[in-house]
Design a protein that fits this description.
Number of strands: 2
Strand order of the largest sheet: 1-2
Number of helices: 6
Helix content: 55-70%
Strand content: 5-15%
Number of domains: 2
Order of helices and strands: HHHHEEHH
Shape: elongated
Largest sheet: 2 strands, antiparallel
Structural class: mainly alpha
């Protein structure tokens, strides 16, 4: 069951359920649910990765992979001796912010491509219009 402890009714129900389970000596798992990345983070990420792709000639898939490889500790994992890469949809807001920051720094220093910050809305709107030209093309 999922309880939002910021909601008074949910908090009371969670406390009652926990008391019942504790009183009866049950085994439980207690897991904190973290907020997923925000819509604005997702939009921003796709704009800067798209800009990077168009600026370098990489496809969007290639640019996304390069982005994820800049933050291997979050995106890459091993399961049964196989290596996998997580989706950005699985990141929480903090992980997403850190990975975007790392990608922007890498893009600027290693690829020589400036990626605007999230508060440079005028540039982001311009990038969005530019990327629409490439819709359904190799870069996007």
């Amino acid at each position: 069951m999922f309880y939002d402890l910021a909601v008074p009714l949910d908090l009371k129900e969670a406390e009652a359920r926990f008391s019942y389970l504790a009183k009866n000596g049950k085994m439980i798992t207690l897991v904190e649910k973290r907020k997923k990345r925000s819509y604005s983070q997702n939009r921003y990420l796709h704009l800067i990765v798209g800009l990077f792709a168009v600026s370098t000639g990489y496809t969007l898939a290639e640019a996304k992979l390069l982005y994820k490889l800049q933050y291997k500790s979050v995106y890459c994992y091993t399961k049964r001796n196989q290596k996998f890469i997580r989706s950005s949809a699985d990141l929480d807001t903090k992980e997403m912010a850190e990975s975007i920051s790392r990608f922007r720094d890498w893009s600027n220093s290693e690829a020589g491509i400036y990626l605007p910050s999230a508060n440079e809305e005028h540039l982001l709107n311009s990038i969005e219009r530019e990327l629409e030209k490439y819709e359904n093309k190799v870069y996007i």
